[in-house]
Amino acid sequence: MNPRTSVVWTPEFLTYQLSDDHPLNPVRLDLTMELSRQLGVLDDVDLIAPEPATEAELTRVHTPGYQTAVRSAPEAPFGVGHGLGTADNPIFFGMHEAANLIAGGSVRAAREIHEGRADRAVNLAGGLHHAMPDRAAGFCVYNDCSVAIAWLLEQGYERIAYVDVDVHHGDGVQASFYDDPRVMTISLHQHPLTLWPGTGWAGEIGRGDGEGYAVNLAIPPGTGDAGWLRAFHGVVPSLLEKFQPQVLVTECGADTHSEDPLANMELSVDGHRAIYHSLRDLAERTAAGKWLVLGGGGYALFRVVPRSWTHLLAVVLDRDIDPDRPLPADWIARAATHTRAPLPVAMTDNADPAFTPWGGDGADRVDPTILETRRAVFPLHGLDPDDPRD
């Protein structure tokens, strides 16, 4: 029996546009949905329109004073603070409404799973993982990831795993649940010495009752598919198998790609596809198939994000796309109206994402990262950090 999957989408998600020239341009979402339609990924899929998050849903994560600042910022003549009005987070009209609709979309996806209408649910507009309880950060006004997880906790869930594969540290989500053992946050990101926000060290393991439930893999810049996947498989499956989450939440930023202008990793679209396959497998093996999928970063707007996230939608829907499949001519023509850059012609970068599993031998440049993270958190879960069987 195929898992039931809900896709949350509305064209109103495209109103989250921080400025005309901001790197986080919603054209990436528009082109992703169009490519998915033209390739048949969304055939017979009823897209679910979200509603804005309620004040109670937002307040589980964001302070009332911050919400007031977001609402009033477009009309405030002298600024409102809270990280708003910066180059990363410029103020725009309709900011609260646009950000709140994305948060509501992620809550709706969580609700689809909780209320039994779906085993998997996806909100590609979500994944705004940097927003803090009282301030905007990193292009993120409201933290829809944390809002959706907090909603699930309110329904009585006791074990939620959050896996963040964005190139930037999932700092806002980690901060939301840093002392809460009900939520295991796992972030794989470019090393904090080399990339904003400068957090996500292996020693950040949680606090109090949450000790051991914050997990960080700080991956060296320049790492490609094989190294990234080696690090992922050297840490993540063991922890999820031990934790046995009731829901797996994933933030699937596409900015680890070699062409992304804001980071320094060397992954391919083929590597992204392999990551999504691994996440799907882990949801089935460790979370009884319950998988909440969110978007995230990704700033190679035309060549990378639409292909990567079309693969993501296809994997979530069990409609996997042959990487060699050509891109439709109509889609290429549509994308060409936005950019003069050469566009890809197929769903592949012609890369081989095969990797050698970590075996405790220290043979790869990512192995110090693997060992540092394993030694920081594995003993707290009864696992042997030096034994590749754990």
Automatic annotation (TrEMBL):
Transmembrane portions of the chain: none
Protein name (record): Acetoin utilization protein AcuC
SUPFAM superfamilies listed in its UniProt record: Arginase/deacetylase
Organism: Pseudonocardia sediminis
GO molecular function: histone deacetylase activity
Keywords: Acetoin catabolism
Domain of life: Bacteria
This protein's record includes keyword RNA-binding: no
Domain Histone deacetylase: 22-315
Pathway as given in its UniProt record: Ketone degradation; acetoin degradation
Family: Belongs to the histone deacetylase family.
One GO BP: epigenetic regulation of gene expression
Protein's UniProt keywords contain Cell membrane: no
